[in-house]
């Protein structure tokens, strides 16, 4: 009797942890799109993450594991999903046919 190895595929996971609005730890990062002291844009497993604040610096970046640590005064973290944009574009294109 043959034993079949069953591989469990995990859902795409991402953990976002903010400490006192001064330190942000995130995993599940695919790529860094852009960064400066006021805004950092990251592509994650769950969509694009836009982080805004003052004096933002990437303290740690591990591309292989997808881990990022950001320090500075964090004012907002906003996820955008690519599917939502496509749905909005479809709606607009239907209105202007």
Automatic annotation (TrEMBL):
Source taxon at top rank: Bacteria
UniProt cross-references to InterPro entries, sorted A to Z: Spore_YabP (IPR012504), Spore_YabP/YqfC (IPR022476), YabP_sf (IPR038705)
A Pfam family that the UniProt record links to this protein: YabP
GO biological process: sporulation resulting in formation of a cellular spore
Ranges in coiled-coil conformation: none
Name this polypeptide is given: Sporulation protein YabP
């Amino acid at each position: 009797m043959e034993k079949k190895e069953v591989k469990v595929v995990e859902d795409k996971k991402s953990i976002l942890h903010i400490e006192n609005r001064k330190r942000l730890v995130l995993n599940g990062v695919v790529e860094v799109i852009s960064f400066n002291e006021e805004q950092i844009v990251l592509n994650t497993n769950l969509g694009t993450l836009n982080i805004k604040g003052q004096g933002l610096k990437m303290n740690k970046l591990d591309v292989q594991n997808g881990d990022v640590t950001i320090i500075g005064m964090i004012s907002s973290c906003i996820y955008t999903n690519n599917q939502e944009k496509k749905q909005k574009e479809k709606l607009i294109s239907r209105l202007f046919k």
